[in-house]
Design goal:
The complex is a heterodimer of chains A (237) and B (251). Chain A has 237 residues and is α/β, with parallel strands linked by helices. Chain A is 38% helix and 22% strand. Chain A has a domain of 121 residues: Rossmann fold (3-Layer(aba) Sandwich). Helices cover 75% and strands 0% of the residues of chain B. The radius of gyration of chain B is 18 Å and the shape is globular. Classes of the chains: A alpha/beta (237), B mainly alpha (251). Chains A and B meet through helix 2 and helix 3 of A and helix 1 and helix 4 of B.
Chain lengths: 237, 251
């Protein structure tokens, strides 16, 4: 991302964000509500357009070369959205088809298995609990095996069991070479999984370093956790 | 092309899964119109020479049902996806705005044609029909459904609430279809109202479609075809431009 700005009328949601996420990295994007995290993810995913600056995914510009960029990207949206007309399997087959994939059932079955969705494969989306719907959202983002996965608060309102299962699966994908970009309000999750972290406040990056360095450089009275670092940085800016 | 095919398939499946409501309902409404209007007015209304009123009524009802359902399909599908937020599943994919347009319009034309065929099949039990120029009928069915499908898409893009779609349906689509000559020949109107009717693009669709049945119409079918084709082209250009810009779809 180079100099990404986003204005909504007088409101400046992003004020020149430049950032490079390395291939294969587990990267955290943290910030308080309204910092611009979701706006940034929307621009990466093509759901929104930057007022200035540019974003590319593995060399594919998200505007000029949007088809390639979107094939490389899997986005799990923050909102718990679903299409009430379809079953879980239909939803995943349709999502595969949007990416030009037919006969993708072997991978769909594997994703459903890892997300514990197999028993619900033929259930209508409407009948699923919130946690189950969240799993389907994750599965939808993965149907085309994207090398870059963006998770926008994937564990918001999710029970412990699913959270653990989800992280196991995402870590496995990361080990297999997938780049993961995560936003979350659960700082212990970011501390546990992310190698590097960017902190965003009022549309600007106020910290960008490895998780290890962020923790090591914190000069506090006791051994720091990421929450201490986060609060300290947010107060300073 | 697979992305386009899948979106088209999804849109077709969407209305077909609830066909009782999206096809059965409109067919029943049209049948009720036929029974009530033909019974109540059949003896009093004179239309084309040698054409009984009930037979005159059928093509109008078929076309009206096609137009209303083609509009309802694209408009309701898009507004539902916008409001529930599941449009995001399409927006994050490599599907282009032209493919998006094509899939929504074709699925809505399909619903229009299925409903139209249903109305025709049911009303054919009550009325003897002839097809003087079936190709004209088919041309107007396709073009008319496409025009309303594009209009529905446009309404879906513009609207932010279900009520706005309902308002568009009740205050634009419904009056324009009802006042287009579904239930009467405009020759039975005063010259002033005849002139006003000529400003209604829906009139040309119904009149042209009716020509396909009786070989008679208020306006020459080629002229009606030109009006509908130009309207379709203009609306399509406008809708494609809005989709390309992401107007009210991409922030």
């Amino acid at each position: 991302m180079r100099g990404v700005e986003k204005r909504y009328g007088a409101l400046q949601a992003l004020a020149g964000v430049s950032l490079e996420v390395r291939q294969g990295e587990f990267f955290g994007l943290l910030g308080p509500n309204g910092a611009g995290k979701t706006t940034l993810i929307s621009i990466i995913a093509g759901l929104g357009r930057a007022s200035a600056g540019s974003v590319s995914v593995m060399g594919a510009d998200v505007v000029a070369d949007y088809r390639r960029a979107r094939r490389l990207l899997g986005v799990v949206p923050q909102e718990l959205v679903f299409d009430p007309f379809f079953t879980v399997r239909e939803t995943l087959r349709i999502q595969s088809g949007y990416f030009g994939l037919r006969g993708n059932d072997v991978w769909i079955d594997e994703v459903m298995h890892h997300l514990d969705l197999t028993a619900k494969a033929d259930a209508n989306m409407r009948s699923l609990s919130g946690g189950m719907k969240r799993r389907v959202l994750v599965a939808q983002a993965l149907v085309h095996k994207p090398p870059v996965i963006v998770l926008d608060e994937p564990t918001a309102g999710v029970d412990v069991e699913l959270r653990q299962g989800l992280w196991q699966f995402v870590r496995r994908l990361n080990r297999d070479g997938h780049t993961v970009v995560l936003t979350t309000h659960y700082l212990e999750e970011a501390e546990e999984h992310c190698e590097r972290i960017a902190m965003l406040k009022a549309g600007r990056i106020v910290a960008l370093d490895s998780t290890k360095n962020l923790l090591a450089n914190f000069a506090g009275p006791h051994p720091a956790d990421l929450e201490d670092v986060f609060l300290h940085i947010m107060q300073r800016h | 092309m697979t992305g386009f095919n899948t979106l088209l398939y999804k849109e077709l499946l969407r209305f077909w899964k609830v066909a009782f409501q999206t096809v059965g309902g409109p067919v029943l409404s049209a049948l009720l119109y036929l029974i009530i209007f033909a019974q109540a007015l059949g003896a009093h209304v004179r239309v084309f020479e040698g054409v009984p009123y009930s037979a005159f009524l059928v093509p109008g009802l078929v076309m009206m049902s096609m137009l209303q359902n083609a509009f309802a399909n694209s408009a309701s599908s898009l507004i539902q996806s916008k409001i529930t937020g599941n449009l995001v599943f399409v927006l994050v994919t490599p599907i282009s705005y032209v493919e998006f347009f094509g899939a929504y319009v074709l699925a809505s034309v399909a619903r229009g044609l299925v409903v139209g065929a249903g109305v025709l099949a049911v009303t054919a039990w009550f009325v003897e029909l002839r097809f003087a120029a079936p190709l004209w009928a088919l041309a107007f069915a396709l073009l008319g459904s496409a025009l309303l499908a594009v209009l529905g898409l446009l309404a879906g893009i513009w609207a932010e609430k279900f009520e706005q779609i309902a308002a568009f349906q009740n205050f634009v689509v419904l009056p324009l279809t009802m006042l287009s000559g579904v239930f009467y020949s405009i020759h039975s109107l005063t010259p002033r109202w005849q002139q006003i009717s000529h400003l209604n693009p829906f009139f040309y669709m119904i009149d042209g479609f009716r020509y396909g049945f009786f070989g008679a119409s208020d306006v020459a079918p080629a002229a009606s075809f030109a009006v509908v084709a130009v309207s379709l082209a203009l609306l399509s250009v406008l809708t494609l431009r809005l989709l390309k810009a992401g107007y009210k779809i991409r922030t």
